[in-house]
Amino acid sequence: MQWTLQYEETWLHRLNPAFKLIFFLSLFLILLFVHNPNVISNLTLVPLLLVLFATGHRRKVIVLLLIPFLILFFSSASSMMFFGQGTTTWWKWGIIHITEESFFRGLHIGFRALNFALLGLLFALTTRPVFLFYSLIQQLKVPPRFAYSFMAAVRILPVMVEEFQQLRAALLIRGVKKKKGLQRVTQSIMLYAVPLLSQSIRRAHRIAVAMEAKQFNNKERTYYYKQTYSKVDIYFVLYIMAGFGLAYWVGHTFPYFGITDVRN
Amino acid sequence: MKVGVSNLRVKYAGAETLLFNKLSLHIKEGEKVLFLGPSGCGKSTLLQILSGLIPNAVPVPMKADEVAIPESSGVVFQDPDSQFCMPYVDEEIAFVLENCAVPQTEMKSFIHHYLMKVGLNFEDPHVEISSLSQGMKQRLAIASMLALEPEVIFLDEPTALLDPEGTSEVWKTIKQLNAKQTMIIVEHKIDEVIHFVDRIVLFDSEGKIIADADPESVFSFYKPKLKEYGIWYPGVWTDHKQDENLPAPYEKGQQLMSISQLQGYRGKSSKIEVSDVTAYEGEWIAVTGKNGAGKSSFLLSLMNVMKTSGTKRVRDKVLKTIKASREQLAFVFQNPEFQFITNSVYDELVYSLEMLEDKGVEKVRNWLEAYDLYHVKDLHPYQLSTGQKRRLSVGTAMFGTQPVLLLDEPTFGQDASNTFKLLALFEELRTEGMLIIMVTHDEMIVHNYATREWVIQEGKLIEDRKRERREKGERHAMDFTV
Description:
The structure holds two protein chains of two kinds.
Chain A: H1 17-32, H2 37-43, H3 45-53, H4 59-83, E1 89-93, E2 96-99, H5 100-126, H6 129-140, H7 144-174, H8 182-213, H9 231-253
Chain B: E1 3-10, E2 20-27, E3 32-36, H1 43-50, H2 53-56, E4 62-63, E5 66-68, E6 73-76, H3 89-99, H4 104-117, H5 134-146, E7 152-156, H6 164-175, E8 182-186, E9 199-203, E10 209-213, H7 215-228, H8 236-244, E11 255-266, E12 269-280, E13 284-288, H9 295-302, E14 307-314, E15 317-318, H10 322-328, E16 329-332, H11 345-353, H12 357-370, H13 386-397, E17 404-408, H14 416-431, E18 435-439, H15 443-448, E19 452-457, E20 460-466
Parallel strand pairs in B: 3-8, 3-9, 6-7, 7-8, 13-18, 13-19, 16-17, 17-18
Antiparallel strand pairs in B: 1-2, 1-4, 1-5, 9-10, 11-12, 11-14, 14-15, 19-20
Helix pairs in contact in B: 3-4, 3-5, 5-6, 11-12, 11-13
């Protein structure tokens, strides 16, 4: 079965993975301190442009991946809009109470969620796990024994998906008497978790022994891939800084919404 | 003396007896030694002790007067899917080179060198491991083991989970390695190794050495033991046929099953296409074809687990739903563990029976006694041995009154005695009028047991051959005696 996506390598793939990780985490932090809906809606464009045009993945794949994020946007926005507090009532029906304040707060939360999601997607689409772990070892001095264990674990995931499918077919064929209500949940956990976990634990043990047999230890080691910083990292920082600056300037100079701070 | 132990004593946690008691064994430089013995006799444990994995990587309590392990050892394990930690071929070998602190600039040429040694000639070795066949994966495992430049090579049933094609591929690779290389091999299927090794060490079920000699002597003096221990020795099929005395070709029974214009889909793509076939009571149909040809999809389509079109009929019943299929077709999966849903052997059968307690008890008991599982009836199914698991999975599948038995490689990875026991069980069911449809890679089973063969190629049933069961005692080209 084909599990990996085909893509063209772009300049985003050449960013240093560890640097990218830290940089994205700090962007998440910065986003938490943006309270102006004008600014955050503009900010969304910054990662969106990259996701749409610079990841090197096929358009179809990107569109498919964006669907859940749009749902996330609407669900997080609407829950805040419908049930939030506020003084200027627009619409009230039962427990649903939309006010001007809650509407903009909802919109703001929605955009923030979308921003997080797009940045996360950008990271996931342009970072090979293997390079990330090599970079974590080389730049952030993560001990190799942790990093290589994670790489081995990433490799097991598709095998687990395949096993899950086989197990599902086996259970369908044997015919399971479905229990009702909450018991149904515990029943399916038992039916799936026990065989999948027991397989995985044994597999993990075998891989661990195989790794030791290949002389994996805490001694001095060399690396097949050398992860370094490059000009691309600077371009990326410049792009983000310019994008964020522009978003901030436009948001303040040409506001579309009357509210400039959703906390009030 | 290069590798060896003196007066070795080993005990697994919770076990009542010692696995090895005062065992001594020494292997000289350049020797190629094969360990033989019944499952569970400790061959693999001994191999791991001699390679130094026990107790360094796997803590097992052991004592010995002397343990001589090689300075460097390379081990190839049984399961092709659980010995790699990296996703790509080049990265996996690089992992070994990294461990040995080989400078990065030299890695590319080393990777090329070791891949050439095992005949994996990729133009660019950056190939996903998951896209390789099982035989190729084992060859990659050999290549990455060679990258350690080991003094002694240890092979722990390297072909137990491979089909015949993969098996000969792997042995061919091993045979063309350096002739002076010291090797210690544990293997059950010994057709291909027997002329390669210099020495055979035969263990009994208590882990005692009962023979330690050259292959010819072991064969002439200990053949009954090899048979008892379920080893696939050359000529095992000839002997089996003499013992078993299989009935001559069947008489055609009543028409039982008919399939017309069957197609099975995964998503939108058609995985299997079968136009028109009929099958009769008392037939044993072997479904053969390459890996990924669509054999398993065929069985899953019959069960309606995949989306299908066309009709399937057993007697006058049309099989449209999973439930309808389940009532007519008993299905045995390749991995028996996936079929178990309760916490004890006994409950598994009761569950299948879906009967009232008092009515079921006798039937379950009888079945367990007949299949030699009654003494383990309270164990969790996972605690059984592989042969027992397989028998139980057959039991759970066909405890009803289904007239058709579908088997997905039921003898895969089993030793000879388990295989023959299973085949005897299926044969008994067949003579009672059951229709058996069995996916298998094993040519010998097709030759000796099947009455008909369906060949599947690229998702299509392309051939429907009648098979004559061979006459008793007839020798096959693959068989030979030493």
